[in-house]
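Q: What does the predicted 3D structure of Small ribosomal subunit protein bS16 look like?
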Amino acid sequence: MRLGRKKMPVYRLVVTESASARNGRFIETIGTYNPIGATETVQLNSERAKYWISVGAQPTAAAAGILRRNGVEFKGHPKGEYVAADSK
């Protein structure tokens, strides 16, 4: 979910139903991502991210990259399903 102002984006990492609108209702906020500045800033609740992946949540490609860079290990299956690395 994009927040911020013109040319100064800040993103929320949220858990949402697949049928919801892109900026619509969401279940839980698991973090924020600020790509602007000398270093990108990520605040992430990794325990909640691992939980949601373990119960079947599928991150987008952009969210998966942010999660991997911040230590949330999971593996993708050929069918597109994701599993948290420590859950099995």
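A (community wiki): The structure tokens above were generated from the sequence. Residues 46-54 form the longest helix (9 residues). The first strand starts at residue 2 and ends at 5.
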